[in-house]
Design brief:
Layout: H1 5-16, H2 21-40, E1 44-46, H3 49-59, E2 65-70, H4 76-84, E3 91-96, E4 105-107, E5 110-112, E6 131-135, H5 138-147, E7 154-159, H6 164-174, E8 183-186, H7 192-206, E9 210-217, E10 222-230
Helix pairs in contact: 2-7, 3-4, 5-6, 6-7
The protein binds S-adenosylmethionine (SAM).
Protein name: Macrocin O-methyltransferase
Organism: Hanstruepera neustonica
GO molecular function: methyltransferase activity
Length: about 230
């Protein structure tokens, strides 16, 4: 059988180029720049994650929220959110295996092993009745949580799960409760093969419109922490 030139070329390329994580990373990196040019030019630029959280809480006027955090570890960010949003009607839900990452996480310069962030099952001790935790894989806990979900409060989702698979699962499952005005926070958005790619894929599949309210830029961080509002 005589193959078309383009077919032969594709087969050749698929055999010659290495199936490399680094190559994929380099391929995706310019997409972050394109994303910035399209959505980030008018956004507020902040120096740290805490500043971003404070900014978002002021942006929403400290109103009552349903805050869902995916990836809790020892609770640094959920604790901080419960401090800055002191509305009595706010509720804070933290989701994590509490046994660490379910898969290894790779980025260009290294990565983290499966099991990193293991707290040996311990959930953070936060003395605030508004805060509760769901222990287990998001894939196991989120469907049940959503079955009982009835809140009409503003939804703030904080995704700090590092992994593409976990992030994509949360976004696609959470789609039914994400509404106009809901806020999504990412913690490792510059990790282009993971949180960024998952968000791109989610938006492509569901036709989501959004604006970037703010992102961080400092010596240590460029687009790591991003706040996005659903339009
Ligand atoms: C970077 S840590 C979270 C850090 C935390 N937000 C903080 O402020 O310190 C990432 C967490 O995501 C959790 N995680 C990732 N994928 C998960 C999944 N599919 N189900 C449950 N937990 C997951 C890991 O167990 C890990 O504790």
């Amino acid at each position: 059988m005589k193959l078309k030139f383009t077919t032969t070329f594709k087969i050749l390329i698929s055999k010659l180029l290495p199936d490399s994580e680094k190559l994929r990373y380099l391929f995706w990196l310019p997409k972050l720049h394109t994303f910035h040019r399209k959505y980030g030019r008018q956004s507020t630029v902040l120096k740290s994650r805490k500043q971003l959280y404070q900014f978002v809480n002021s942006y929403i006027s400290n109103e009552a929220i349903t805050y869902c955090e995916f990836g809790v570890f020892q609770g640094a960010s959920i604790r901080y959110w419960a401090q800055i949003n002191d509305h009595v009607d706010s509720r804070f839900f933290g989701f994590d295996t509490f046994s660490g990452l379910p898969e290894s996480w790779n980025n260009f310069t290294g990565g983290l092993e499966k099991g990193t962030f293991d707290t040996k099952g311990l959930v953070p001790d936060i003395k605030d009745d508004r805060v509760s935790f769901y222990k287990g894989l998001f894939q196991d806990t989120l469907p049940d949580f959503l079955l009982g979900y009835q809140s009409d409060k503003l939804l703030v989702i904080n995704i700090d799960a590092d992994l593409y698979s976990s992030t994509l699962f949360v976004l696609t499952m959470g789609h039914k409760i994400l509404k106009k005005g809901s806020v999504i926070l990412f913690d490792e958005f510059s990790s282009v093969l993971h949180e960024f790619r998952a968000f791109e894929d989610y938006c492509a599949a569901y036709g989501v419109c959004f604006e970037v309210i703010a992102y961080t830029k400092s010596k240590k961080s460029y687009y790591s922490h991003v706040a996005i509002k659903i339009l």
